[in-house]
Amino acid sequence: MVNITADITPVETMSLLYATRALEPGKVVIKGIKNNLPVAALPAARTQVFIDKIAPVFPQMVAPESVLVTSLNNLNPIVHPPMVICNAGRIEATGGRGWNLYGDGATESVCKMMLAMDSERMVLMEHIGIKGITFKEAFEQLYNDYSLGGESMTLSETLRKSPIHANPAFSAPDSVDSRYLAEDIPFGLVPLSLISRMYDLTTPTIDAAIQIASVMLERDYFKEGLTPENLGIEAMTPEELRSSVI
Fold first, then answer.
1. What CATH number is given to the structural domain containing 164?
2. How far apart are CA 126 and CA 128, in angstroms?
3. Domain presence at residue 205
4. Cβ distance 241 to 68 under 8 Å?
5. Largest CB tally within 10 Å, which of 130, 147, 162, 233?
6. pTM for this one?
7. What is the pLDDT of residues 91-110, one digit of tens each?
8. Percent of the chain at pLDDT exceeding 70
């Protein structure tokens, strides 16, 4: 292990503050800003110091229990892979032109896959003993100022009617081999799967998404993705895991 002596505090947010896209070099469109965004330092004892420094610029940032909350509540691995996998034919046929991944691709059947994956994630978080928030609730709460969703709407309706994510400016990816799989599978779904296995929990839908993405992109994401060994948490009990980030 490298002996780091500099006083550096790693900090992560649960997601990006802005819903934004680069339209062209030098031109960016921002279609939404989250009204609150969990941000945690490692160790958690330093989180408030960061928030005090950043609050004058980004008052939306709030402190959760630890980086376990921000990492395991990340929404992207739950929403992106199912939409790309289930809409792969359309992506390849159109190059992502003429349609929106959320507005057109987040149909009821696709969202059933998201909800199944989300349920597996929530079981893991409950087992570890940290606060989890379902994908639909997180989506609505982060964008509360935009009055997205609600109990009467399905997840599909919430995503497809979002004035932010279903905006035509947010086109579909032009290739299946995009960040929606290349980032969210190895750095999102694989650790969810392998950490669950560490506690004898099953993640059949998450595993299926990883396997299908591996076949599509001719890679073995189970081998390439983040593992408990990579993260330095192998064989930790839930209590030891929680204590390690405080």
1. 1.10.1040.10
2. 5
3. yes
4. yes
5. 162
6. 0.92
7. 999 999 999 999 999 999 99
8. 99
Host domain of residue 126: 68-244
Number of domains in the chain: 1
pLDDT of residue 1: 46
Positive/negative CA dihedral, 136, 139, 142, 144: negative
* Structure tokens belonging to residue 205: 């839908």
Other C-beta atoms closer than 10 Å to the C-beta of 63 total: 16
**CB-count burial class (<10 Å; 0-12, 13-18, 19+) for 3:** exposed
Contact assessment for residue 13 and residue 75, using Cβ atoms and an 8 Å cutoff: no
Tokens representing residue 92 in the block: 């390849």
How far is residue 150's CA from residue 242's CA, in Å, rounded to a whole number? Answer: 32
Categorize the per-residue pLDDT at 223 as very low, low, confident or very high, splitting at 50, 70 and 90: very high
Q: Could you report the per-residue pLDDT of 7-17, keeping only the tens digit for each?
A: 889 999 999 99
- Tokens 């199944």 — which residue? 116
